[in-house]
Amino acid sequence: MELVHSGKVRDVYADGDDLILVASDRVSVYDVVLPTPIPGKGAILTQLSLWWFDRLGDVVPNHVISEDVPAEWAGRAIRCRRLEMFPVEFIARGYLAGLGLKEYEKQGTVSGVPLPPGLVEASRLPEPVFTPTTKATTGHDEFITFDDVVREIGAETAERLRDLTLEVYRRGADLARERGVIIADTKLEFGRAPDGTIVLADEVLTPDSSRFWPADSWEPGRAQHSLDKQFVRDWSSSVTGWDRTPPGPEIPDDVVAATRARYAEVYERITGSPWRL
Ligand code: ATP
Ligand code: MG
Predict the structure, then answer these.
(1) Cis ω on the peptide bond leading into residue 247 (within 30° of 0)?
(2) Which residue's C-alpha comes closest to atom 31 of ligand 1?
(3) Which residues have CB under 6 Å of ligand 1?
(4) Measuring CA to CA, which residue among 154, 108, 152, 116 is closest to residue 133?
(5) Atom nearest to 9 CA in ligand 1
(6) Atom of ligand 1 at shortest distance to CA of 23?
(7) Burial degree of 135 (CB within 10 A; 0-12, 13-18, 19+)
(8) Fewer beta carbons below 10 Å: N end or C end of the chain?
């Protein structure tokens, strides 16, 4: 099979008209792939995405064809439809964290959307906000406004994708909340099928693409216990001398184990099934 793309986490192969999306155990922070893998991470991302795709089928069609992939990738790869991807990261935020928090602290807005005063880190927003970013091929993604998305893909498609992004977020957040997990925010990717249909692609509502917080310890005004990649970001920020450019630092064994445990925990909490690896 021909390797058509090697991203930070996934390798993408072409098999006839289909793509095979293989999730590796690589982890990236601040867009730098770290030299140490997190064993089992690729399988967790793939299985959790499949679980969500299944449950979101009545909101939006998705790119999954099957799990029929070469044996060496079994469990961590899917066969999917090849789409023309929209050049935007479709992000929904229900709580204040990360770049959203930064912008709010500076100017009271997130992605240009005005928010009420008095919010703090991890505050719940009055309602979820659509905060798209660029999908940079090099360098970091940056916030863009809804109008920028309109200019990029047209008003009708932009509105549809904004609505779908918020709906997927709401559905996911409601379901996870029943299972004790807050989904603070999430990033989605959509593409267009040859017949023009809008399709949900890539990965969905995973600890690489979302912020997950245990609901029972949620407390605005401080950093939250995170069941996602934030744990690795926080550790990497504590590494003296690393300026967030390649090469990234080796991850020590205890941080690898703790990261892996968090990814498995969020899989188990959300799906209600034991993680098998
Ligand atoms: P980059 O590709 O810029 O490195 P990334 O590190 O997030 O970004 P990965 O997630 O590792 O990339 O790789 C997955 C790639 O496959 C992404 O570029 C994503 O947009 C693309 N992709 C996902 N699903 C599909 C699909 N159905 N059709 C075409 N491309 C897809
Ligand atoms: Mg990606």
Answers:
(1) yes
(2) 202
(3) 5, 7-10, 12, 19, 21, 63, 80-83, 85, 137, 189, 191, 201-202
(4) 152
(5) 11
(6) 11
(7) middle
(8) C
Query: What contacts 231, CB < 8 A, 6 or more positions away?
Result: 255, 258, 259, 262
For the chain, the straight-line distance linking the first and the last C-alpha, in angstroms and rounded, comes to 27
Pocket test for ligand 1, best of 26, 60, 189, 192 (most atoms within 8 A of CB): 189
Planar angle of CA 208, 45, 266, nearest 5 degrees = 75
ipTM above 0.85, yes or no: yes
Beta strands of 138-209 (E only): which ranges? 181-192, 198-201
Reading the block at residue 81, the tokens are 């439809």
In 3D space, the residue among 139, 131, 232 whose CA is nearest the CA of residue 185 turns out to be 131
Q: Report whether pLDDT(167) > 90.
A: yes
pTM passes above 0.95: yes
Q: What percent of the chain has pLDDT over 70?
A: 100
Which of the listed residues 2, 3, 4, 5 should we mutate to test ligand 1's pocket, taking the one with most ligand atoms within 8 A of CB?
5
Q: Whose CA is nearest to atom 24 of ligand 1?
A: 202
* Nearest CA among 159, 158, 165, 180 for reference residue 225: 180
* 211 Cβ contact partners less than 8 Å away, ≥ 6 residues apart: 95, 97, 98, 183, 184, 185, 186, 224, 226, 228, 230
Q: How far is the CA of 8 from the centre of ligand 2 (A)?
A: 7
Q: How far apart are CA 261 and CA 243, in angstroms?
A: 27
Q: Is the dihedral of CA 244, 248, 253, 259 positive or negative?
A: positive
CATH code, 84-217: 3.30.470.20
Q: What pLDDT is recorded for position 277?
A: 56
Give strand pairing partners of 85.
Answer: 191
